[in-house]
From TrEMBL:
<comment type="pathway">
    <text>Quinol/quinone metabolism; 1,4-dihydroxy-2-naphthoate biosynthesis; 1,4-dihydroxy-2-naphthoate from chorismate: step 5/7.</text>
</comment>
<feature type="domain" description="AMP-dependent synthetase/ligase">
    <location>
        <begin position="6"/>
        <end position="329"/>
    </location>
</feature>
<keyword id="KW-0436">Ligase</keyword>
<comment type="pathway">
    <text>Quinol/quinone metabolism; menaquinone biosynthesis.</text>
</comment>
<dbReference type="GO" id="GO:0016874">
    <property type="term" value="F:ligase activity"/>
</dbReference>
<dbReference type="InterPro" id="IPR042099">
    <property type="entry name" value="ANL_N_sf"/>
</dbReference>
<dbReference type="InterPro" id="IPR025110">
    <property type="entry name" value="AMP-bd_C"/>
</dbReference>
<comment type="function">
    <text>Converts 2-succinylbenzoate (OSB) to 2-succinylbenzoyl-CoA (OSB-CoA).</text>
</comment>
<keyword id="KW-0067">ATP-binding</keyword>
<keyword id="KW-0547">Nucleotide-binding</keyword>
<feature type="domain" description="AMP-binding enzyme C-terminal">
    <location>
        <begin position="389"/>
        <end position="463"/>
    </location>
</feature>
<dbReference type="Pfam" id="PF13193">
    <property type="entry name" value="AMP-binding_C"/>
</dbReference>
<dbReference type="InterPro" id="IPR000873">
    <property type="entry name" value="AMP-dep_synth/lig_dom"/>
</dbReference>
<dbReference type="InterPro" id="IPR020845">
    <property type="entry name" value="AMP-binding_CS"/>
</dbReference>
<dbReference type="InterPro" id="IPR010192">
    <property type="entry name" value="MenE"/>
</dbReference>
<keyword id="KW-0474">Menaquinone biosynthesis</keyword>
<protein>
    <recommendedName>
        <fullName>2-succinylbenzoate--CoA ligase</fullName>
        <ecNumber>6.2.1.26</ecNumber>
    </recommendedName>
</protein>
């Protein structure tokens, strides 16, 4: 494949590649800037290692730096700015990088490799270098560490072919064209954000960058700017719904919908979207598949609320007959985990299917419903309980702002469900929540204990980190609701 940056500069030189609140950069300017950045990296002697780490916010400088690394023929190792220095150093050592490019506002003082700030890079002298002429399908474009919702992360290798396949399937499903403009408010160091950047290059589409999620500011963009699509995770969607209802504002006419990922959403919220005539495309995917591989189309959304949809073009799905685990085949699938290929091989069945670790079912029309992670499933008295189902049942509970459920050991039932709650009433009693649960769930699914928390731990892509709640419980950091 041609270098995508150079190709779009030739095909659509004046079209906007990326926009933030202050600046617009065309594809021709992007090609020119990335060449200049490559010369500066060469001048700093920073191109010796195939892999280059980037630590950044959702900023124009971060976007351009990433594109510069790709244009130079190197692999981006994306670092999550929310991690501690020790967590980042684990990833730096694991990926064997010797240079990390970082945004000036972030602290890189404790990182274990050479660090170069964006301002230092910007002021560096230039040295000749040869831009990458082709993006080979099998070459690694990026290495992205799994979100770590259950433990130590693994470095997922994502090739140019993986990204291209993902973008192709997404375009065929959503009907995206170069005339679209995609609002990127999800982190670019996660697949949800980086995939938008890569789609922008492949489609010749404009990416609208925002530094962070602020519901009021995002609504103003959706009301006033020519954005057609936005990627959201459940908590973002809920915030946007709330402010939309409060203000009564209408999004501008070009807006087509929200791509929802990052975890399950309760049916009450989806019904609310339907009532507001707000198009939401539910999706299912993972870091290993370079974003979504299953999506629910606009046309099918009303009839299949709660479903993640059907497999996108290029994707095959099946369920394990015994465990109901979702298994897949797709050219968007990563070729492996960096330095841990044995863990990747363990996820491949004898006939070549990738085991996702998620449990689900198909309805009679072939639509996929995802119940949750097999690791999260609670087995209580021989019955299977999925935390997502319990959390969804409590979504309309008038006593709660939020809830998270997990299983703990129990002498009588093997495991029992417990819940961590953020109440919106000071006089809330555990019995109130038990009574509510028994009105909406089978009794064995109702949490047996409720613990008070001020907030629930999520990673940068919006996924709930249940293992952190378990750590709080084990260390006695939470108070039980009586």
């Amino acid at each position: 494949m041609d270098n995508w940056i150079k190709k779009q500069a030739a095909l659509a030189p004046t079209r906007a590649a990326v926009v933030d609140k202050e600046k617009t950069i065309s594809f021709a300017q992007l090609a020119e800037y990335t060449d200049k950045l490559g010369r500066k990296l060469a001048g700093l002697d920073a191109l010796n290692n195939k892999r280059i780490a980037i630590l950044t916010n959702n900023s124009l400088a971060g976007y351009l730096t990433a594109m510069g690394v790709l244009n130079a023929g190197h692999t981006i190792v994306w670092l999550n700015r929310r991690l501690s220095a020790s967590e980042l150093n684990y990833q730096l050592n694991d990926s064997q990088v010797d240079v990390c490019l970082y945004e000036d506002q972030l602290d890189a003082s404790q990182l274990s490799c050479r660090t170069i700030s964006f301002s230092e890079l910007d002021s560096a002298s230039e040295k000749s270098f040869a831009p990458q002429q082709v993006f080979a399908a099998k070459d690694a474009a990026s290495i992205m560490y799994t979100s770590g919702t259950t433990g130590r992360p693994k470095g997922v290798i994502q090739t140019f072919g993986n990204h291209f396949s993902s973008a192709t399937a997404s375009a065929l499903n959503l009907g995206v064209t170069p005339a679209d403009e995609w609002l990127c408010t999800v982190p670019i160091f996660h697949i949800s954000g980086f995939s938008i950047m890569m789609r922008g290059l492949i489609y010749g589409m404009t990416v609208r960058l925002v530094s962070h999620f602020d519901a009021a500011k995002i609504q103003q963009i959706l009301v006033n700017e020519p954005v057609t699509m936005i990627s959201v995770v459940p908590f973002m969607l809920k915030k946007l719904l709330t402010i939309k209802q409060e203000t009564g504002a209408q999004y501008q006419k070009r807006f087509r919908g929200m791509l929802l990922g990052g975890g399950p959403i309760d049916q009450a919220t989806l019904k609310q979207c339907e009532q507001l005539q707000l198009p939401v495309i539910q999706s299912y995917g993972m870091t290993e598949t370079c974003s979504q591989i299953v999506a629910l189309s606009f046309a099918d959304a009303a009839k299949h609320i709660g479903s993640s949809g059907k497999p996108l073009f290029l994707t095959q799905l099946r369920l394990d007959q015994n465990t109901q685990e979702i298994q897949l085949k797709t050219p968007a699938l990563s070729p492996g985990y960096l330095g841990k290929q044995e863990k990747y091989v363990a996820k491949i069945t004898t006939d070549g299917w990738f085991k996702t670790g998620d449990i689900g079912h198909f309805d009679k029309d072939g639509f996929l419903y995802v119940h949750g992670r097999s690791d999260d499933m609670i087995i209580s008295g021989g019955e299977n309980i999925f935390p997502d189902e319990v959390e969804s049942a409590y979504a309309k509970c008038p006593f709660l702002e939020d809830i998270a459920v997990l299983g703990v050991a129990d002498d009588k039932r093997e495991q029992k469900p417990i819940a961590f709650v953020i109440p919106n009433e000071q006089t809330l009693l555990a019995q109130d929540l038990i009574d509510y649960g028994r009105q909406h769930l089978a009794h064995y699914k109702v949490p047996k204990n409720f613990y008070l928390v001020k907030q629930l731990p999520h990673n940068a892509s919006g996924k709930l980190q249940r293992f952190k709640l378990r750590e709080r419980l084990t260390s006695g950091q939470v108070k039980e609701l009586q």
